Amino acid sequence: MTKRLLIVDDEPDIRRIIQVSLEEIAGWQVSTAESGSEALVTVKTGHWDAILLDISMPDMNGFDVFHKLQSDPVTQQIPIVLLTAKVQPSDRRRFAQMGVAGVIAKPFNPINISNEVAQTLGWELKP
User: Fold this and answer.
1) Can you tell me the distance from the alpha carbon of 127 to that of 98, in angstroms, rounded to the nearest whole number?
2) Measured between alpha carbons, how far is residue 32 from residues 6, 9, 42, 43, 99 in Å?
3) Distances from the Cα of 12 to the Cαs of 8, 43, 45, 76, 104, in angstroms?
4) DSSP for 35-54?
5) pLDDT digits (tens, 9 = 90+) for 31-90
6) Are 6 and 52 in contact (CB under 8 A)?
7) What pLDDT band is residue 127 in, cutting at 50, 70 and 90?
8) Residues 70, 97, 9, 109, CA torsion sign
9) Whole-number pLDDT of residue 101
10) Edge-to-edge strand ranges of the sheet holding 4-8
């Protein structure tokens, strides 16, 4: 069954690069949201296998979005992978304590991002 992912990032180029990479390389269905508030509406529109969530966004940061998703019984089981340039050991400890599924550092390699997502979530990629 095809995986369904939601990408939440305020940068249009980042959303597009990730979307194309995950659709073309992994064959997954990908939707996007450009803000935290849009993500909270979009996530209610169907079943999601994972959410890739940017931390630094203007209207509502990724931490706030994550906490809102965790406080809702409908969305709290969706694995969240953070997209961030903050990858210091102290940041990684904080993220681990939050209970996120994983972290993908920016900048990332568009060719490898589907592998990073699959490894983080324990998914197999189709050959």
Assistant:
1) 33
2) 5, 8, 8, 10, 22
3) 10, 19, 21, 26, 18
4) SHHHHHHHGGGS--SEEEEE
5) 999 999 999 999 999 899 999 999 999 989 999 999 999 999 999 999 999 998 877 777
6) yes
7) low
8) negative
9) 94
10) 29-33, 4-8, 50-54, 80-84, 102-105
